[in-house]
């Protein structure tokens, strides 16, 4: 972890400060409130504090002439990306991180992949349990590629 705010004069802006001030108050940016999370390690008796805030920047878009007010629902394609700000405090160590949209996209993609695998396992286990209990069940649907291979 990079602690980018140690040994700097108080007037020097860090990367964290520059990034958050660049997004704060922009018309095409929405944000969540800063959320503190404290974890306590019961075995060793220490605690860690995380302060997490997300900013979402929308892509520049042309106003739709058919829309009188220039407002419409925000589609996924309109999202330029999420920037995540994390402040971490553990004892005397304080670290502030900025995770850019490229990193947050990877985190979201990996989480979605794990969720899909977990649901697939749970569905298979539920099917097997119902089959063993004698409940009338239809077999799980095969993926399109497996259906073509069977024909």
Describe the 3D structure:
With 151 residues, the chain is an alpha+beta fold. 32% of the residues lie in helices and 28% in strands. The chain contains 3 helices and 5 strands. Strands 1, 2, 3, 4 and 5 form a 5-stranded antiparallel sheet that branches. A hairpin with a 4-residue loop joins β2 and β3. The longest helix has 32 residues. The termini are far apart. About 5% of the residues have low confidence.
SSE inventory with pairings:
Layout: H1 15-23, E1 29-31, E2 35-41, E3 46-58, E4 79-90, E5 93-99, H2 101-132, H3 144-150
Antiparallel strand pairs: 1-3, 2-3, 3-4, 4-5
What structural keywords apply?
151 residues; single chain; five-stranded antiparallel sheet; 2 domains; alpha+beta; 28% strand; 32% helix
What gyration radius follows from the Cα positions, in whole Å?
A: 24 Å
Shape assignment: elongated
Total of DSSP H or I helical runs spanning 4+ residues: 3
| pLDDT < 50 runs, ≥5 residues | 65-71
Sheet bearing the most strands, described? 5 strands, antiparallel
The domain tally reads: 2
The proportion of residues forming helix, as a percent range, comes to: 25-40%
The average pLDDT score comes to 81
What oligomeric arrangement do these chains adopt? single chain
Order of helices and strands: HEEEEEHH
How many individual β-strands? 5
Distance between the termini: 54 Å
The share of residues in extended strands comes to 25-35%
Instruction: Quickly give the structural class.
Output: alpha+beta
């Amino acid at each position: 972890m990079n602690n980018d705010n140690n040994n700097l004069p108080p007037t020097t802006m860090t990367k964290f400060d520059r990034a958050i001030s660049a997004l704060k108050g922009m018309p095409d940016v929405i944000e969540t409130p800063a959320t503190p999370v404290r974890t306590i390690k019961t075995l060793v008796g220490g605690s860690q504090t995380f302060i997490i805030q997300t900013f979402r920047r929308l892509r520049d878009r042309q106003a739709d002439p058919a829309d009188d007010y220039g407002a419409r629902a925000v589609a996924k394609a309109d999202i330029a990306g999420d920037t995540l700000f994390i402040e971490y405090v553990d004892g005397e160590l304080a670290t502030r991180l900025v995770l850019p949209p490229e990193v947050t996209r990877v985190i979201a993609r990996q989480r979605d992949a794990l969720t899909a695998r977990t649901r697939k396992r749970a569905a298979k286990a539920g099917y097997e349990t119902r089959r063993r209990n004698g409940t009338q069940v239809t077999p799980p649907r095969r993926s399109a590629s497996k259906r073509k291979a069977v024909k």
